[in-house]
Specification:
By secondary structure, this protein is α/β, with parallel strands linked by helices. It has ten helices and eight strands. Strand 1 (4-8), helix 1 (16-26) and strand 2 (34-36) form a beta-alpha-beta unit. The protein binds phosphoenolpyruvate (PEP). Residues 8, 154, 159-160, 190-193, 211-215 line the site of phosphoenolpyruvate (PEP).
């Protein structure tokens, strides 16, 4: 079975031209990955029939919430997936597990598929606290939720750092995460996945796919990652 490939473009793209170029270079492989662009460029990706997700969304129903984007409007424009709990959002926007739990419920009620991002800090990793942190994040974020979600394991210290856990560590953590669910949950790995390490990471036997940030900005890197993940 080929793996899921998710491209989290974060806030990297900032011109219409760069987005057009990106779309042109990747349209041949558009059915092989899910793209999470900047919200203002979503329409372009949708018009070109890419499968799209969003990097975050409001917890509120449409109403008086200046600057926010409702899940209802996203669903109506054809968005299928939402990333929730990304560590940059947890840090920069002070989102906690309780808010993430409410957002997951809002997304599920609107039939969006949820990718819940979880991961430990470097300090927790060094203190061998990874599993304790991940269990707590999962329990709190998925409180009173029985619908299926996708989990993306993204150690905070691996995001954008060029560092990754070893294959054995990722395999062990993936096995542990799967053991916490009573359904066959899909578990992705994210954190410094690149066209240079994808051959190695793709050997992890129990991983269901990859969430890629920086390397996904370069169409040729992303294409190489897709090609390897398909094997
Ligand atoms: C991410 O932020 O989801 C991510 C995986 O980033 P990067 O690939 O840049 O480490």
């Amino acid at each position: 079975m080929s793996k899921l490939v998710l491209a989290n473009l974060k806030m990297y793209q900032s011109t219409k031209e760069s987005v057009d170029d990106y779309i042109n270079k990747l349209k041949e492989v558009k059915d092989k990955f899910i793209v999470f662009p900047s919200t203002i460029y979503l329409e372009k990706f949708i018009q070109n029939n890419f499968t799209c997700g969003v990097q975050n969304a409001s917890v509120h129903n449409p109403g008086p919430y200046t600057s926010e984007v409702s899940i209802h409007s996203l669903k109506n424009m054809g968005i299928k997936y939402v990333l929730l709990g990304h560590s940059e959002v947890r840090q920069n926007m002070a989102e906690d597990d309780e808010l993430i739990n409410r957002k997951i419920k809002q997304a599920i009620n609107n039939n969006l598929k949820v990718i819940l991002c979880i991961g430990e800090s470097l300090e927790a990793y060094n203190q061998s606290q990874t599993k304790i942190i991940l269990k707590s994040q999962i329990e709190k974020a998925l409180k009173d939720i029985s619908e299926e979600v996708i989990i993306s394991y993204e150690p905070v210290w691996a995001i954008g750092s060029g560092k990754t856990p070893t294959n054995n560590e990722i395999e062990d953590i993936t096995k542990y995460i799967k053991s916490l669910f009573d359904y066959d949950v899909k578990v992705l790995y994210g954190g410094s996945v690149s066209d240079e390490n994808i051959n190695t990471l793709n050997e992890i036997p129990n991983i269901d796919g990859f969430l890629i940030g920086k390397a996904a900005i370069d169409p040729s890197s992303l294409m190489k990652i897709i090609e390897v993940a398909e094997k």
